[in-house]
Specification:
By secondary structure, this protein is mainly alpha-helical. It folds into two domains: 107 residues, Ribosomal protein L17 (50s Ribosomal Protein L17, Chain: A, Alpha-Beta Complex), CATH 3.90.1030; 40 residues. It contains six helices and three strands, in the order αβαααββαα. Strands 1-3-2 form a three-stranded antiparallel sheet. Strand 2 and strand 3 form a beta hairpin. The longest helix has 37 residues. The chain is elongated and about 75 Å long. It starts with 13 loop residues before the first helix and ends with a helix.
Length: 179
């Protein structure tokens, strides 16, 4: 039974587990995204997020503490130079776990663990959704709704006509300038 046992040993001895998590954390810092099993990703998140928090304070002591965990100069410099700058205002939650399905050989849960601020696809999608209207819609009576439905196409057509008139004016002024 696992009563009150909080650490997942991942079926490894402690030295093997520490080395594996250090290697995975180094790969995550250098590549910003890695693919692994769900259990390893959850263990890695607990391991790497405190290191990222320590990197916010760029001091010799913090660098030495992080280096004692990672044992990689390249990963430490990447963490303190680039990643800590991007996550400076974030209060936590630096990683994201995205489930990708099951592994073919043993049917293990697979996932991608990535640094949150480095996924360009989701960041661009988030900026697109912010441009849309975010006002709450209120329920109106049916009479008002019917009037709004009939008035909406008229408003759209007038906007289209106005846009075409403006385009025609700009085209005619461009033709005059060319002559």
């Amino acid at each position: 039974m696992r009563h009150r046992k909080s650490i997942n040993h991942l079926g490894r001895q402690s030295a093997h587990r520490k080395a594996m998590l250090a290697n995975m954390a180094t790969s995550l810092i250098l590549h910003k995204k890695i693919s692994t099993t769900l259990a390893k990703a959850k263990a890695l998140r607990v391991y790497v997020e405190p290191l990222i928090t320590k990197s916010k304070e760029d001091s010799t002591h913090a660098r030495r503490e992080v280096f004692s965990h990672l044992q990689s100069k390249e990963a430490v410099t990447e963490l303190f130079r680039e990643i800590s700058v991007k996550v400076a205002d974030r209060p936590g939650g630096y990683t994201r776990i995205l489930k990708t399905g099951f592994r073919l050989g043993d049917n293990a849960d697979m996932c991608i663990i990535e640094l949150v601020d480095y996924n360009e696809n989701l960041l661009s999608a988030k900026s697109d959704t912010k441009t849309k209207t975010s006002t709450r819609r209120k329920r109106t009576s049916t009479k008002k709704a019917d009037k709004a439905k009939t008035a909406a196409p008229v408003a759209e057509t007038t906007e289209v006509v106005e846009n075409k008139v403006e385009e025609a004016k700009t085209d005619s002024t461009e033709e005059k300038k060319e002559e």
